[in-house]
Design a protein that fits this description.
Order of helices and strands of chain A: HHHH
Oligomer: heterodimer
Number of helices of chain B: 2
Radius of gyration of chain A: 20 Å
Structural class of chain A: mainly alpha
Largest sheet of chain A: none
Low-confidence stretches of chain A: none
Shape of chain B: elongated
Structural class of chain B: mainly alpha
Order of helices and strands of chain B: HH
Number of helices of chain A: 4
Number of strands of chain A: 0
Mean pLDDT of chain A: 91
Number of domains of chain A: 2
Strand content of chain B: under 5%
Number of domains of chain B: 1
Largest sheet of chain B: none
Mean pLDDT of chain B: 91
Chain lengths: ~130, ~60
């Protein structure tokens, strides 16, 4: 029943943010970030269970663990970059938000390179 | 535990803004500025600890680094 906690927390914090945003916008931005993190920590245990389930499936299907680990790393980087970009956008600073997203994309591409190479080699072997 | 943090920060924000208005009424603007700075610093301290906690969780969860 975490969804009830999450929705309750979201509604209360939105009202609090409306009150605080008029006087102290800088504290409102930090409060919005803290609410986001609180919701994430509420859901974190379930996420760990899902990731273990994915790993179990991958090992059962004899998929090379390198691919799954790279995919999970990419998801992690994307998530953290998203948090950073949202905080910057919340403070109405879209330039820094786009820079954070650019960095996230570059790092994800760096991680994706070995997988693309592996795919290319398997295709060449088939031809 | 994290939900208490949300309400603590909201309380700090409201108290700081109210006290700043009171100080500004009594012609002590520099005090109001210092108080605002202290409020933001306090909130930042709490947020930094939480963000470090988040990065640790995500790092262990997705095996980053």
């Amino acid at each position: 029943m975490e969804i009830v906690q999450v929705v309750g927390l979201a509604i209360v914090s939105v009202v609090l943010l409306l009150v605080i945003r008029q006087q102290r916008p800088e504290i409102a931005v930090l409060l919005a970030l803290v609410v986001g993190l609180a919701v994430f920590f509420l859901v974190a245990q379930r996420l760990v269970a899902i990731l273990d389930f994915l790993r179990d499936l991958a090992s059962r299907a004899r998929v090379d663990s390198l691919y799954l680990n790279t995919i999970l790393k990419i998801v992690g980087i994307a998530y953290i970059a998203e948090i950073g970009a949202q905080v910057c956008r919340d403070a109405e600073d879209t330039t820094i938000a786009s820079k954070v997203e650019l960095a996230g994309k570059v790092l994800i591409l760096v991680l994706a390179m070995p997988i693309v190479m592996a795919i290319l080699e398997t295709i060449l072997k088939i031809l | 535990m994290n939900i208490n943090l949300v309400f603590q920060i909201a309380a700090v924000g409201i108290i700081v803004s109210v006290l700043a208005v009171v100080l500004r009424q009594s012609q002590r603007d520099e005090m109001a500025q210092l108080l605002t700075l202290a409020g933001v610093a306090l909130v930042l301290g709490i947020v930094v600890k939480l963000v470090v906690d988040l990065f640790e969780t995500v790092r262990t969860m997705f095996q980053l680094y």
